[in-house]
Amino acid sequence: MDIDMNGGRDRIAPMFKDRHVLITGGTGFLGKALIEKLLRCCPEIGQIYLLVRSKKGKLPRQRLEDIFANPLFETVKGLRGLDTLISQCTVISGDVTEPELAISPEDRQLITEKVSIIYHCAATIRFDETLKKAVMLNTRGTKYMIDLAKQCKKLDMFGYVSTSYCHLNEKLLLEKPYPPPADPHKVIKAVEWLEEGVVDGMTKKILGDCPNTYAYTKALAEALVVESMDEIPAVIFRPSIVIPTWREPIPGWTDNINGPVGLLIGAGKGVIRSMYCDSDGYGDYLPVDFAVSAMCVCTWNYVGNQDHKRNIYHLVSSAEIKVSWEGIIERGKWIVANKIPLNGVLWYPGGTMKRTRWEHNLAAFFFHWIPAFLIDCLLYCFGYKPILWRIHQRIAKGFEVFEYYANNQWDFDNATILYLRTIINDEEKVKFKIDAGGVEIQEYFENCIRAARWYILKETDDTIPAAKRHMRVMWWVDKICKTLIYGGLIYYIGKALYSLLFASVF
C-alpha cells in the first residue's frame, strides 16, 4: 500500500476531525489518558461521549468533573480552557454490566446516529475478582458493547482494549486470534443463571490452567470481538502492563499503585523485604502515553488508510527494552535511598528476591510478619490504630497474583507497530510517539517515584529535606541492627562449633 507522507504534516489528528467518539472506562487509568490525548492533540475532534455510571454516591456528571480535576488535564486546560473541554465531552449515563447498558432510549439513539469510533476500555483489572463479576463486566459487558456497535449507522471502528497477557499458554504471542478457553456465550449464560456463591465454588475448575479471572474473561471477550469482525469493523488492542507516563503530559503521572509503582513504593518505604521471583526475568511494560498514542496511530491506519487486514495490535515494549524484576527493585531502592526519599520510611530500603518459595516464606516471617506484629503492638500501646499487619496481608494477597507472572516468561510479536513506524512522518513520530527512542530508564524511574510522591502519597517537595535526614538515621539503624544480628549469629555458630570440637577431642 502506497502511503502519502503529506509533506511531513500531521495526518492523524485531521482524521479525527468532526468524528464522534464513544469511550467506555473513561474514569480509569488508560481511559483518562486517552481522553486527554484526544483533547490535546486532536482539538478538532467531534463530540467525545463517555459512558459513565454512578459510583459511591456520585452522579456521572460529577465523575466527569472529577476527571478534569485530575492533574493529568492541567496542560490541556491551560491550552484550551476547562469550559471548552467540558463542552466537547458528553456524559452518557450507563453501566456495561447492565442489560442494554442501562442507556436511555434517547442516549442510545444519539450514539447510534452520531458515533463513528468506539473505544471499549471498561474492565475490572482486579486479578482476584470473583468470576461472576469478572464475566459480567469483562465478557458480557463486551457483548453488550458489540451489540450497540452493530446499531451504529456511521461506525468506522470498534476498538476493544484487551491485554497481551490473556493467552498465557502461548509463550510467544502473535498478532492473531486465539481460541478462547471456553465458549463465551455458554459461560455468560451459566454465570447469569447461577448464584455467585455457586460460581465461586466452581471457579478453580472452570479456570483450569488459567491463573486468574482477569485473563480468563478477557480471553473470552476477545473471542466475542473476533466473532463480530464479519459484521462490524472491529480491532483488538493488546497492551501489556500499562505503567505511568513517560513524558506526556506529565512525566511519571499515574493514578494508582498497580504494577511496578506499587513495588517501588513498598520497597522504598522499607515494607517489602522479600519477594518470590525470578530476579533475572522481566515483564513487558508500556507507559500509558505510548499506549494511547499507539491507539491513535492504529485508528488512523485502520480508518484513514482503510487497512483492514491489520486488526490485532500488540502494544508492547520488551522487544526493545528489557528491565528485569531485580533491575526495577534495585533502581527503585537506590533512587529512594539517595535522591528522592519517601516520608515515613519504616526500614532502610533493602531485602532481596528469593528463587524458592520456602526461602521467601522464611524471610517474610522474620522480616514482614514479626516486625508488623511488633510495630502494631507499639502503635496500639501508644493509642494509634494498628495498620502494618493489614498492609502485609494486602501485600501477601498481591504477591499471590504477582508470583505467577514474575516466575514465568512471555514474549510478544509486534510486527504491526513496527510497520506503522515506517509509514508515519517526522511530525507524527513526535506528536504520537510509538518508539523507544530517547527513553532513559533511570530518568523514567526517578520521574515515576517523584510523581508517585506527589499524586499518590501526597508528599510535597518541602518534606524532602526531612525525609533525607530520616533516611540517614534509618541507614545507621539498619547497619547497627545487621551488625548485631549477624554478629550474634556468628558468635553463636562459632560457640556451637567450638563446643562440638571440644567434645570430640576430649
From TrEMBL:
Ranges that cross the membrane: 362-384, 484-505
Nucleus in keyword set: no
UniProt catalytic activity: a long-chain fatty acyl-CoA + 2 NADPH + 2 H(+) = a long-chain primary fatty alcohol + 2 NADP(+) + CoA
An annotated GO cellular component: membrane
Keyword list, A-Z: Lipid biosynthesis, Lipid metabolism, Membrane, NADP, Oxidoreductase, Transmembrane, Transmembrane helix
GO MF term set: alcohol-forming long-chain fatty acyl-CoA reductase activity; alcohol-forming very long-chain fatty acyl-CoA reductase activity
Pfam families, per the entry: NAD_binding_4, Sterile
Chain ranges of the Thioester reductase (TE) domain: 23-295
Enzyme class: oxidoreductase
E.C. number(s) listed in UniProt: 1.2.1.84
All residue ranges annotated as the Fatty acyl-CoA reductase C-terminal domain in the record: 367-459
InterPro entries: FAR, FAR_C, FAR_NAD-bd, NAD(P)-bd_dom_sf
BP GO terms, sorted: long-chain fatty-acyl-CoA metabolic process
Topological relation to the membrane, as annotated: Multi-pass membrane protein
Localization: Membrane
Stated family: Belongs to the fatty acyl-CoA reductase family.
Function: Catalyzes the reduction of fatty acyl-CoA to fatty alcohols.
Protein name: Fatty acyl-CoA reductase
Source organism (scientific name): Anopheles coluzzii (African malaria mosquito)
